[in-house]
Amino acid sequence: MTHAPINATDPAADDPAQGLRHDLVASLQEEGWVHDPRVAEALAAVPRHRFVPDAALETAYARETVSIKDDSAGASLSCASKPAIVAMMLHQADLAPGQRVLELGAGSGYNAALLSHLTAPGGQVTTIDVDPDLAEHARTHLADAGYGHVRVLCGDGASGHPDGGPFDRIVATVGAFDVPPAWLDQLTPSGRLVVPVRLAGDASRSIALTPAEGYWRGVDVQMCTFMPLRHSSAADPRRVLDLTGDDAVTLWANQDQDIQPESVRDIFTDKRTTTWTGVVFGNNESFGDLWLWLALTLDNSLSRMPVAGAATEAGGVEPMLRWGSMATTAPSGQRGLAYMTLRPTGDRHELGVIGHGAQGAALAERMAREITHWSQHYRTREPTVDLHPRPHLPPEPEPGRFILTRPSAHLVVTWRQQPPL
Ligand SMILES: C[S@@+](CC[C@H](N)C(=O)[O-])C[C@H]1O[C@@H](n2cnc3c(N)ncnc32)[C@H](O)[C@@H]1O
């Protein structure tokens, strides 16, 4: 892929932040995260480090999130998102000068500054955070970086900003499970909503939605994971269960999953079985669509299972990736867990499933069957996601089409089946 050059000329040798910013944008272009020259220019212009002043310069311009507020247990309550995800969502928003934009989840204020840059001249950006400290943080740092004209409000983003609309774009940088009607109602007739939606279990997608006849069409769907809405009418709380008694292996449990802590506690000491699938993945192939398929088809969906390096080295757990694996659990009251693993085959890897507990073998076999089914029938197709506001009825479910009913809307995830080989 060819990339447009960054419009920031030779980075000043005496401005290390500008040099780091230039390198960051170049690496994002190189990997295809940035392909619109206007987005490249905005990322090269907005000083990310001014929005995360407690971080070292190298940290501010690394490819990772930068946390700006943690809870008492050390979990992040707010962060500047990964630059690649920021860039991806700016592309999804399809911004133009003069637009009025509402952002939900002000956080550091960095993305609001980018939105402002991309809608200048003549645009107007409003951003909302539920946390007064964070709203103040964003306001201060936006002013400090020269974006004092961005409006920062404190409140529940799920309500949008009824007095400020209509907006050409509404961009949520906080995860939602339902899509609050306020967001759709506050858009202009040709507006666009960009929202990271948790579809099922741990499977989330950032979806760009535009109005179609009687529904909202997902015109772009990308992998992402965001911290959920909190203190909100649309809150999406998540529990983190300790599987090993020392937090070496944990399991994320979401509101659409029925997971009792006692049915998975110390599960790795229970009887183990391994089922190999014959499904192989290349080194750079994404597991994202497979995980979404499993999250939608398994009875208790799919959970993130982070595994500390020490637990892997001790040998009791063999996760598929360095950070951990994805797992499913037995229905309430029954003991069982199954998670994905890999073994080398030539220069690729074969997927397997390791089960533990009374239901472990059955769960592993079920997961393995779904992996094979997805690989045979859906692997070459990317899923689409549309939204049908209630009380409108969604299309009927069929093979490869899943209807996810939320309080405000039906989300329709569709894999068009590939023709027989
Ligand atoms: C990933 S951060 C947003 C990143 C931000 N856009 C930036 O550029 O730094 C998510 C933010 O959503 C905020 N948030 C959580 N629940 C919210 C709610 N109900 N309404 C508005 N903001 C909320 C959090 O406080 C947090 O600051």
Automatic annotation (TrEMBL):
<dbReference type="Pfam" id="PF01135">
    <property type="entry name" value="PCMT"/>
</dbReference>
<dbReference type="GO" id="GO:0032259">
    <property type="term" value="P:methylation"/>
</dbReference>
<dbReference type="GO" id="GO:0004719">
    <property type="term" value="F:protein-L-isoaspartate (D-aspartate) O-methyltransferase activity"/>
</dbReference>
<keyword id="KW-0808">Transferase</keyword>
<keyword id="KW-0963">Cytoplasm</keyword>
<keyword id="KW-0489">Methyltransferase</keyword>
<dbReference type="InterPro" id="IPR000682">
    <property type="entry name" value="PCMT"/>
</dbReference>
<comment type="similarity">
    <text>Belongs to the methyltransferase superfamily. L-isoaspartyl/D-aspartyl protein methyltransferase family.</text>
</comment>
<dbReference type="InterPro" id="IPR029063">
    <property type="entry name" value="SAM-dependent_MTases_sf"/>
</dbReference>
<protein>
    <recommendedName>
        <fullName>Protein-L-isoaspartate O-methyltransferase</fullName>
        <ecNumber>2.1.1.77</ecNumber>
    </recommendedName>
</protein>
<dbReference type="InterPro" id="IPR027573">
    <property type="entry name" value="Methyltran_FxLD"/>
</dbReference>
<dbReference type="GO" id="GO:0005737">
    <property type="term" value="C:cytoplasm"/>
</dbReference>
<keyword id="KW-0949">S-adenosyl-L-methionine</keyword>
